[in-house]
Amino acid sequence: MKSSVGAVGSTTAGGLGLAALLLAPPSLADYRRDIGHAGLAQELGPLLPMGAGVSVVQVEAPVEVAGAKTWMPDPGQTEFAGKTITNSSSAPAGLYSGHATGVGRAFYGSSSSIAPGITAIAAYGAEDWIGAGYLRSPTSGLPRQPLALAARVANHSWVGSSTADGDILRRTDWAIHRDEFIHVVGLTNGGANLPLMATGFNVIAVGRTDGGHGRGSVAVDGIYTAGRVRPHLVVPAATTSQGTAWASGAAAMLAELAAANPALATDPVSPSVTTRSGSVVTSAGRSAVIKAALMAGALRQTFNTTTADIVDYRSAAARRSANGLDTVFGAGQLHVGHGYRIIVAGEQNSLEDDPAGGGRVGSYGFDHDPRFGGASGTNTGGTYRLPVGQRDGMLAVTLAWNLRVAGGIPSLFNGTAELFDLDLALLDVTDPAGPVIVASSAGSGDNTENLWVPLRAGRRYAMEVRRGTGQVDFDWPYALAWRIAEDRDGDGTADDVDNCTQLGNASQLDADGDGYGNACDADFNGDGAVNFADLATFRSRFGSTDAQADLTGDGVVNFADLARFRELFGRAPGPSARVR
Question: What end-to-end distance do the CA atoms of the chain give, in Å?
Fold first, then answer.
């Protein structure tokens, strides 16, 4: 196979500058705050999912060490104590990749990741992963299906291309759907070229919050076309390799949550599926559901402590994709807390699948409809009635479905692919005269539809999933995930970001990223106490004489203003739901 693979985070596979960055001790408190992990950890304590019991794969491009190529993370790192890292592609013994080690620390490191509970890691070289080691592309003789693995999450912090691009993508997308095998793929840094794997339909493609990543998709064939929105998510990381590892950790957290709580799946027909390796995956843990939950949970506006912010989401017409995403930021910045609350809220079925439930859903939730599209008696619509809010709110919702790839039989992989067209709409159903479409997402070239729209207090709304215009009958599953954040001041900014409404827009200070849309949060550094250290952050955000921060009116911003701020707002309590 003719191929070219390289590390995502550098211009060369060796990438010593990147390796040094990844190996440096990360500012954990900062990035965890920015992606909502710190607040979730504070809320859940020992019940916090950490990826326990979730086996994973780390795919790496080779680097040259001592005249030989290797792709193995260094198992002797203290961060990997108690973990089993399998040398699945037979890298030379005793030679380790700095890039792979750094990615491993960010993905499953004991103190340097958000998924330290991961203990079973299979390390693959990229070319072996594409070839005989897993995808079996291309093969001599009869084309065989990819191998069956028990892993749930694969991290791809690498870029690859070959003479068999379409076959690689079809095999990857088929395996994601057939085995519910979540593949998280990094984009390039700087945007000089585009990674092949991110062109897959069923993957989760990751960029950087500062926008320093490649965008879009590679033109491969009539199915895998250019111009589709990539990334799906961005992460406040210095490199896409690092950010991809954090997103993989988030996927592992949600996979653990789903596996530990089978009652979260309530589909009346098919609440679970069995993979080829014999693993049972419930609706809450399916690949499309976790992808939808992470996208619906993403922040469209940020106030980070670690990197640049998203301040202009979909502000320019050229950035507004037909499927409701921003062409630079995708669905926005990863927020682990929101993703968790979407999954822990449980599966909530559509009116069509559960007439007795009336299609009524909560402020957070998901649904996996295993059969949709009108063929063989399946539904042609899915209706979900949102709760009536006492305050204005912001709705974020993602509809995701997998590309259909024919697998054939184990000795003869088919690879025929078909993309179905689904649409998503939000309707105001308050008035007896009939529903009014408030917003819709009706792209036709990709496999997600997304909405991020305000909801008005006292109005009745319904989300609807429909077939796209001109789409013939089909029989295929979809995943829907949503969340509603209150917008108490009605400025179009959800309280999970605009968290200090009484001080106005300039004071959007959910500094620890916990995302709780209740009272303002005076614990700016997220250490659990409001003290002098928080004043430094308070003043840095407003300056020493900002009138909005001078709550005592004495002409200067000082500790008295912080004390007044604490008196007015205190610390917001988080949701009480604890499921494990």
Answer: 45
Portions of the chain given CATH number 3.40.50.200:
3-339
The pairing of strands 84-87 and 120-125 is parallel
The mean of the pLDDT values for the chain is 85
Q: For residue 177, what are the contacts with CB-CB under 8 A and spacing of at least 6?
A: 202, 287, 288, 402, 403, 404, 405
**SS3 assignment, position 402:** coil
Given a cut of 50, is residue 21 above it in pLDDT? no
| CATH number for the domain running over 501-569 | 1.10.1330
CATH topology of domain 3-339: Rossmann fold (3.40.50)
Handedness of CA 549, 551, 556, 559 (dihedral sign): negative
The alpha-carbon radius of gyration of the chain (Å, integer) is 23
C-beta of residue 4 within 8 angstroms of C-beta of residue 163: no
How far apart CA 277 and CA 256 sit, in angstroms, is 17
Token pair in block for residue 162 = 């070959």
CATH number of 348-486: 2.60.120.380
Rounded distance between C-alpha atoms, residue 133 and residue 130, angstroms = 7
Instruction: State yes or no: pLDDT of 362 exceeds 80.
Output: yes
346-359 pLDDT, tens digit each: 999 999 999 999 99
CATH code 1.10.1330 region(s) in the chain = 501-569
* Average pLDDT value for residue range 375-401: 95
